[in-house]
Amino acid sequence: MKTEQIRLMSTEELKAKLADARQELMNLRFQIVTGQLTDTSRLKQTRRLIARYMTILRERELSQQREGEK
């Protein structure tokens, strides 16, 4: 998912997607330990997606703080 698409989501949607991505990462880790995961690049993709979600959530949080100070 591209960053532009993520920015269009509401904060609640973003938090739900973040929780889903973290769950998927946990499942991928279990699969790699048990030897079921063949496409290990999904780990990197999922970690980066989580980072994107967290970055955009943090940007929104900081912008709300700045608006509150004014």
Automatic annotation (TrEMBL):
InterPro entries for the chain: Ribosomal_protein_uL29, Ribosomal_uL29, Ribosomal_uL29_sf
CDD domains membership: Ribosomal_L29_HIP (cd00427)
Source superkingdom: Bacteria
Cellular component annotations (GO), alphabetically ordered: cytosolic large ribosomal subunit
Pfam families: Ribosomal_L29
Keywords: Ribonucleoprotein, Ribosomal protein
GO biological process entries: translation
Presence of the UniProt keyword Transmembrane helix in the record: no
MF-aspect GO terms: structural constituent of ribosome
Family per similarity comment: Belongs to the universal ribosomal protein uL29 family.
PANTHER family given in the database record: 60S RIBOSOMAL PROTEIN L35/50S RIBOSOMAL PROTEIN L29, LARGE RIBOSOMAL SUBUNIT PROTEIN UL29C
HAMAP family (alphabetical): Ribosomal_uL29 (MF_00374)
UniProt protein name: Large ribosomal subunit protein uL29
Species, as recorded: Bellilinea caldifistulae
